[in-house]
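User: Second chain of the day. Same drill as before.
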Amino acid sequence: MKAAIDALLALVLLIAVPLAANADVMTSAEDVAEVTTKIGFAQAQFALAAERQDWEMISNLYTDDAVLLPPSHGFIRGKKSINEFWKSELVETVKGVTLKQVSIDLLGDTAIETGTIETQGVASANYVAIWKRQANGAWQMDRHVWNAARPAE
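Assistant: Same format as last time:
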């Protein structure tokens, strides 16, 4: 019986300690709204940069040690590699790209965004981006993964 109580206590501590440690990162609706707006602005910059083929502007939206996980590719690590990837993938001018946020979850200085990528009004991909707040208050993508969206049935 004592072993069962000890195991239960250990389980409670295993759950409670991380929750208590993260209590200070709980955020208000105003915080989430502000971050959603800032990340939305960054996503608009991404779409504009893709249309203009401004690879430097795109790579500046990522942290120095960011990781891309594009479909049918290995890990792409760091701004220089990210710049080269986008240069090779967006060889033709991309017009009419819209990134639509579906949700943003804010955990302190980290935001997890999900959304869709539309090209000329048609969903073409789904994405997840993990954003990190920088010392200057700017938000940059730290992890970025996407896949092709299935056509509507």
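The radius of gyration is 19 Å.

User: Great, on to the next one.
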